[in-house]
Amino acid sequence: MRGLIGMPKQVLTARYRREGRFLNADFDLGDFICYFETGIDRIARFDATVEVLSDDRILRLDYGTPFVMHLPATLHMTECEGDGGVKRTIYQPEGQDSFVPEWQAFHASVTRHVMPRTDIADACEDLILIEKIMTVLEG
Q: Could you state, in order of their start, the residue ranges of all structural domains in the chain?
């Protein structure tokens, strides 16, 4: 999430249910609010989505399950068209699952010493965000 839209200014709300197996939070990112939701249930499925809403466009990125090879991420774009019309476009790369570029980047980092997109400092930012969520949950 932070790689796409940056570090939230603050955690507005955070809630958990079912002994912590489900968590949702609202993040203040200045011009917009990001809603985060995660959960573990007993349904055999994988659901990972990032959705960004603006005045005239909705972008939804769906990640395929990591358990099916060559299942790519899918970008759904819904936007205004004309006077009251709606245009929906789906973008999907051919035959490459979402994790191939990650493995290629990892390989390049190890074999050619290419700097990774995220480093230890970035991992610390994740921990700071988790701490902020926990503070709101305890508050």
A: 1-45+98-138, 46-96
Residue for token pair 């999907």: 92
Burial letters for 71-104: b for 16+ Cβ neighbours within 10 Å, e otherwise? bbbbebebeeeeeeeeeeeeeeeeeebbeeeeee
Residue-wise DSSP of 45-112:
---EEEEEE-SSEEEEEEEPPTTSTT---EEEEEEEETTTEEEEEEE--SS--TTHHHHHHHHHHHHH
Please give the structure tokens belonging to residue 9. 């200014």
pLDDT digits (tens, 9 = 90+) for 30-86: 888 888 888 888 887 777 788 888 889 999 988 777 667 777 788 999 999 988 899
User: In angstroms, rounded to a whole number, what is the distance separating the alpha carbons of residues 71 and 64?
Assistant: 6
Q: What's at 25, amino acid-wise?
A: A
pLDDT value for 98: 66
In tens, the pLDDT along 65-76 reads: 766 777 778 899
Distance CA 134, CA 139 (A): 8
